[in-house]
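Design a sequence for this backbone.
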């Protein structure tokens, strides 16, 4: 299992923190407020690093361990930042049979990051996904909203160059 340590230093701004505090103040009296607060915090920051969890913990007077438990339980939350360009490789059956596993492994090698991580410059993040419904184009990857299909490992340099 990866250590869930970010390769990108936390770069939250005072404006983001003020926005988060405002959201917490608005929602804190609602029953079950933690989930919507975490969702808004992730919208504000793009992910939920320990620094953001600590702000929420201190402001709501909820133990940090409880907040961390919720964040790590639900797959919608991320402890790691996403890159400017989010690369997602389909590892569903059709794509996998046609070589998406090799594409995924080659991207980890080329970018120097593991699954779920972000490059140190904040440019690329990499994740695997299950079927995206483009089985006829297998193997498929997406970069943000751009879809690339019928790929081979040899196509990766050209795709990455478009976003460099």
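Sequence:
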């Amino acid at each position: 299992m990866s250590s869930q340590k970010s390769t990108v230093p936390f770069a939250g701004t005072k404006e983001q923190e003020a926005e988060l505090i405002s959201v917490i103040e608005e929602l804190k009296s609602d029953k079950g407020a933690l989930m919507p607060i975490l969702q808004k915090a992730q919208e504000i920051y793009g992910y939920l690093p320990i620094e953001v969890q600590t702000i929420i913990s201190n402001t709501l007077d909820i133990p940090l361990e409880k907040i961390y438990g919720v964040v790590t339980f639900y797959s919608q939350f991320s402890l790691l930042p996403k890159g400017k360009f989010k690369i997602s490789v389909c590892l569903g059956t059709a794509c996998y049979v046609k070589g998406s596993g090799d594409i995924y492994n080659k991207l980890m090698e080329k970018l120097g990051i593991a699954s779920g991580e972000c490059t140190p410059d904040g440019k690329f993040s990499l994740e695997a996904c299950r079927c995206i419904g483009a089985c006829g184009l297998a193997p498929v990857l997406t970069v943000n909203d751009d879809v690339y299909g019928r790929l081979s490992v040899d196509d990766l340099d050209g795709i990455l160059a478009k976003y460099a």
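The domain at 85-162 is CATH 3.40.30.10 (Glutaredoxin).
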